[in-house]
Amino acid sequence: MPASVSSAATANVPALSADLPIGQIAVQWPGATAIFRRLKLDFCCGGQQSLRSAAAGKGLDAEAVLAEIAPLQRSNALPEATAPGALIDHILTRYHEVHRAQLPELIRMARRVEAVHRAHPQVPAGLADLLEAMEAELLSHMQKEEQILFPMLRAGGAPFVGQPISMMRSEHVEHGAALQKLAALTNDATPPADACNTWRALYAGIAQLGEDLVAHIHLENNVLFPQFEAPAAPGCACH
To answer: Where is the Hemerythrin-like domain (predicted)?
Structure first.
């Protein structure tokens, strides 16, 4: 199992409310930054004002904005059904779609933080490039699963199914190594004390990416794939 990027961002999270400061929402609900940016709501320098106040200033309905943010509260609970089709559906919606949404926004914020805070001693130089490399690897990996492996598993497997499963397991190890690099570069997704809201939101998003990727890999390696792999032959008991 690869190491995750740890963060305290998920601890003691208050209920989502329009009365929370917009900067706090940006940090505690990774992905909200993309919504705020699209709506031109300033969560960085103007992060102390409540979402209700920020939305009113732009002529927006705060409850409608909340409705966009609410789906970002995702659970890592395993699906009750462990049948391959149900597991694959869960993996596609909970992890593949989420990774595709997470990474472009994280890359954008990383470029911003690296540019604005380039003189800061703790700036994560090279973070955007690392995230871009991870995105390329993940997109390729997920495409192989979606186009080759998952249809094969939905059909009940095949005599040679162990080969693509072995390839996916090998790539999972590479994803784990990338997460370790990400943790080292970001001090385990821990922003400096004087970090701005964008920096804090970036690291919260990176922590969420790490948690999601570890849960994703666990579900495939330990729940889905073993259903199609031949059990290991018992060792010889003759001595």
So the answer is: 88-227
